[in-house]
């Protein structure tokens, strides 16, 4: 499948963003551990959440989580600490995404987990049993999802958990999001020093929980306004919070440097404010930024900067190589089609110094990566008639993305 995209002169729309998949997936795991009967409300309908809902409802022997990293990591810990035997598997790409750090940590706590393919990678056979808990050290430089997975089961362990993070903690706001949600469900869990988290053995309390919209999904709308730069354009969102616990809510600061301002207006009696974003003329002449806390924002910011001719040096990108695809290679390859020559350094840095080449305008490949499709679609503002291959990949986190673009006046066919 391929879409051809043409942008409107002005964008003026109210967008119902999808619910956050990170919050949905945590809520589902914690809800299951709390043995509650009130399912979290406003769950995301994206692929990555549906695989967890399906696994929890049907409990098949073989659970296929497809391409969902959070589902793979969160369910590994959940199944290891819950009675029953399961095989946990996913897409071919998932079988290349490492899980050894989490499996080693769980085995250290007494879990029975076996690799069915390559050592250190899915698929896994997991025989659930009661785990003791205690003190554990876990490397935090590959994926924060291992730590979130261990933390979420921690209140149910006999001795709770004291978890020390070694080698630095990337994606740290996701760890804080996990701790915050655990506390929302009654857990006693917090940082006890700069790199140690203590979780006491105290059962979760069942409660009603409503999922906030997804700040990561808002990033593509910021990108559209930054690329368009038209003062008349405005996008409004509902369901986002100002003081959100989602690390990606920092998108509003990053894009304030790239010509998009954010305004909140509270409506009496409504739980969430309306968030409005508008273009303004003020842009930085160049941007240096460390993405190690917010890796999912890298693609929309990289595409925006290149297309607005803002040279950049972005660090903290090492983990982009082990996500849905090698995002560093994918960004370099696809931006070259549009005439921008990026280089990577030290495995974790992406640099654009303004070097250009002749654009081929070949269709953009998406590499089974929702964020490649969503980050390149706004490029149609600069390159009318841009073609995107396999656009259906957006269902991983934002199934309504193309319909929302149409609603905002883009022609998508
Ligand atoms: O915990 C989460 O919900 C997530 C953590 C991040 O992964 P890493 O910790 O692997 O960087 C992020 O990229 C992913 O989209 C969602
Ligand atoms: C990296 C992502 O997801 P996951 O690791 O959960 O597959 C993402 O959504 O960008």
Please, could you describe this protein's structure?
- The chain has 413 residues and is of the alpha+beta class.
- It has two domains: 2-19 and 212-412, UDP-n-acetylglucosamine1-carboxyvinyl-transferase, Chain (Alpha-beta prism); 21-199, UDP-n-acetylglucosamine1-carboxyvinyl-transferase, Chain, CATH 3.65.10.10.
- 30% of the residues lie in helices and 22% in strands.
- It has twelve helices and 19 strands.
- The protein has a four-stranded mixed sheet.
- Helix 1 runs parallel beside helix 3 (69-80), helix 1 (21-33) packs across helix 6 and helix 2 runs parallel beside helix 3.
- The termini are close together.
- Bound molecules: shikimate-3-phosphate and phosphoenolpyruvate.
- The site of shikimate-3-phosphate has 12 residues, from helix 5.
- Phosphoenolpyruvate (PEP) binds at residues 68-70, 296, 323-324, 371, 397.
Task: Please tag this protein with its features.
413 residues, alpha+beta, UDP-n-acetylglucosamine1-carboxyvinyl-transferase, Chain, 2 domains, four-stranded mixed β-sheet, 12 helices, 22% strand, binds shikimate-3-phosphate, binds phosphoenolpyruvate, cytoplasm, transferase
Describe the secondary structure blueprint for this structure.
Elements: E1 2-6, E2 12-15, H1 21-33, H2 47-58, E3 62-64, H3 69-80, E4 84-89, H4 100-108, E5 112-115, E6 124-128, E7 134-139, H5 144-153, E8 161-166, H6 172-184, E9 189-193, E10 196-199, H7 215-228, E11 234-238, H8 251-256, E12 258-265, E13 274-283, E14 287-290, H9 298-307, E15 312-315, H10 327-337, E16 343-345, E17 349-352, H11 370-376, E18 386-389, H12 401-407, E19 411-412
Parallel strand pairs: 2-11, 3-4, 7-8, 14-15
Antiparallel strand pairs: 1-18, 1-19, 4-6, 5-6, 8-10, 9-10, 11-13, 12-13, 15-17, 16-17
Bound molecules: shikimate-3-phosphate and phosphoenolpyruvate.
